[in-house]
Design goal:
Distance between the termini: 44 Å
Number of helices: 7
Strand content: 25-35%
CATH class of one domain: Mainly Beta
Strand order of the largest sheet: 1-32-33-34-35
Oligomer: single chain
Structural class: mainly beta
CATH topology of one domain: Lipocalin
CATH architecture of one domain: Beta Barrel
Radius of gyration: 22 Å
């Protein structure tokens, strides 16, 4: 399971239909409270506090046409509205534009800055997914980091999470949100240039490129209903939209990657949640990579992570037909190997028995036709759905696995001696290095955490030519049934020598004191500039460490802000994407109202300022 957000904005539904005359409180008590008010912290279902931070329209949209539409399809329109009103404590807004304030005063006819200037494109900043920003692009040195000051905040209306990282190109910033919009901002001031409504929330990072065969520059991204988009970067006009997978649970959570006129789209799913209902025929989803013509959105090929089509395997204790093999979703951005004409992806756990040999694995496909070149599985027999942590375990696979899938992108690194390494950290708490030039041969494996359903290492690591830097989550909950985070468990930041796997830098967990919803866990992706590692914490602190482990700077993001777009703004837990550093500015998301983390809805922008 993609531990960071597999159940983002989740409302778990039972299969029995509700009576139309029931009010929202009764509907919630019957169909939702077990997960949202119970002790099932591992399920990722947001608690009542997180849902109260959401808008009525956001929750209703999630149930009607968003990521939860498949699970709420048996509910009437009135029932959906009653639930949305009850859990948020709000009524419909009437469609008032939440981004009316903060518009740029002047329309642009071109990019404010040169396109070959400072930029951060996509999830990992380069095709190797290194998350390492070179000095000329960063515009920020280790000596300047202690002088970073907040410049502006941008808020996503009605959201309890800020879960999509920004892309910065030519002085413009592009970002998706839980508000089911993509926003284009001026990267320096945060004013809004345009917004585009999408079919579902956009959690994935955005990729930027010139549209092949055209003078247009476009952004490419995917949403939580498995739609891939190409949009004019300057105007927000839709160029094309393609649904890449018809499975009802399919979604796009990893950034599509563009190379040589082809857009490679990773496909994940929410079937781990829907598949947990005892009445659901679990499970039939298979992860895949879909190659699209970047100019038109036309499919070129689709390569499944599980070659075998799921088939009937037996029945559960309630007589529901079960299927397998299934799962092996791809939660993260693919990595392109130009030298070997290959694309590397990291897969999730299996959903049902029999477990697949390609789940919890690194897979290499050929760029031209999607042929599987090699596979290297890290954790075999890891069949798991959310039911394994729920009160009703009917659909939990027998002898289920530990949910130790990969939630981050492999990083392709060329060492100083010319050898190449494909490195990645896992939710098991193990960091792996594979040989991309020898069929994925294991070079070394080093444990840095205990591992678990919420890490080990979750969203992303960063690497230069010498080291890989890995954040450890290992978030834990109190054993008293309160769903409260354990303030004493988790955390730690590590630097490992890429040639040997030896830990050469270690920052111990940072205690978070008596603050509410507190955990020292480091779940978010880390980012790297020369001499500095940036890491956000579940407690809400963003910290910068020298590569010698010395603390250089920290900022508590869990506070209220006056947003440039006039939307009520609050920071919270930092989870999911890591900081983006471009042209002397640093951008970070804050707010993650899942698994009892502190809800929030902001993108924060920092620059070097005076004391």
């Amino acid at each position: 399971m993609r531990a960071s957000a597999v159940l983002a904005a989740l409302l778990i539904w039972c299969s029995a239909p509700a009576l139309a005359q029931q009010d929202g409180a009764a509907l919630y008590a019957k169909h939702c409270a077990q997960c949202h008010d119970g002790g099932d912290a591992q399920s990722r279902a947001p608690g009542r506090g997180a849902m109260q931070a959401m808008s009525f329209d956001h929750v209703l949209g999630t149930l009607t046409s968003g990521s939860m539409a498949a699970m709420a399809k048996q509910r009437s329109d009135g029932e959906r509205r009653a639930i949305a009103s009850f859990v948020t404590g709000k009524a419909a807004t009437g469609g008032v534009a939440a981004d009316a304030e903060g518009r740029c005063t002047q329309q642009i006819s071109g990019f404010p800055q040169p396109l070959d200037g400072p930029s951060w494109n996509g999830w990992g900043v380069d095709l190797n997914n290194s998350r390492f920003q070179p000095a000329d692009m960063a515009g920020l040195t280790a000596a300047q980091v202690p002088h970073l000051r907040l410049r502006w905040a941008y808020a996503f209306p009605g959201a309890s999470v800020s879960f999509a990282p920004p892309t910065v190109m030519g002085g413009l910033l592009f970002i998706g949100g839980a508000d089911r919009k993509v926003h284009a901002l001026d990267a320096r001031t945060g004013c809004t240039l345009w917004t585009l409504a999408t079919d579902a929330a956009v959690r994935a990072a955005i990729s930027f490129a010139q549209l092949p065969g055209s003078d247009q520059f476009a952004i490419f991204f995917g949403d939580l209903r498995a739609n891939a988009y190409a949009v004019n970067a300057l105007t927000g006009a839709l160029i094309w939209k393609t649904k890449v997978e018809e499975h009802a649970g399919a979604r796009i959570t990893g950034a599509p990657v563009l190379h040589s006129g082809v857009l490679y789209v990773p496909v994940s799913s929410l079937e781990e949640a829907s598949g947990s209902q005892a009445s659901y025929e679990c499970c039939t989803f298979r992860g895949s990579v879909v190659a699209l013509e970047a100019a038109t959105g036309k499919p070129v090929w689709q390569a499944y992570t599980i070659p075998e089509v799921p088939h009937p395997t037996g029945r559960n204790a309630r007589g529901t037909q079960l299927f397998g093999p299934s799962g092996a979703a791809i939660w993260s951005a693919p990595t392109i190997d130009v030298k070997r004409s290959a694309i590397y992806v990291a897969t999730s756990n299996s959903y049902s028995n029999p477990p697949s040999a390609t789940s919890d694995a690194i897979l290499a496909f050929g760029l031209a036709a999607g042929k599987l070149l090699w596979r290297q599985q890290a954790t075999p027999k890891d069949a798991y759905v959310v039911a394994c942590y729920s009160a009703d375990k009917t659909n939990c696979p027998e002898d289920h696995g530990p949910d130790h899938d990969f939630g981050q992108s492999p990083i392709l690194v060329t060492l100083r001696d010319g050898r190449r390494v494909l490195a990645i950290a896992q939710k098991s708490g193990v960091v792996h290095a594979f040989d991309p030039d020898d069929g994925g041969k294991i070079l070394w494996q080093t444990r840095i955490g205990k591992g678990g359903a919420l890490g080990g290492s979750e969203w992303g690591s960063a690497a230069d030519q010498d080291r890989i830097y890995v954040a450890n989550s290992d978030v834990r909950f109190r054993r008293d049934g309160t769903r409260q985070l354990d303030s004493t468990q988790g955390g730690g930041l590590f630097g490992l020598d890429l040639a040997s796997g030896i830990v050469v830098m270690e920052v111990p967990p940072v205690a978070c004191g008596d603050r509410l919803q507190c955990s020292p866990a480091l779940s978010a992706a880390v980012s790297l500039i020369r001499g500095v590692v940036f890491s956000g914490s579940v407690s809400g602190f963003l910290r910068a460490y020298g590569t010698d482990g010395k603390l250089l700077w920290e900022f508590d993001t869990a506070q209220d802000y006056k947003a440039v777009n006039g939307v009520p703004a609050h920071g919270g837990a930092i989870d999911g994407p890591g900081p983006v550093i471009v042209g002397g500015m640093l951008y970070t998301n804050s707010g993650y109202g899942q698994w009892n983390g502190v809800a929030g809805n902001v993108l924060l922008a920092f620059e070097v300022g005076e004391e």
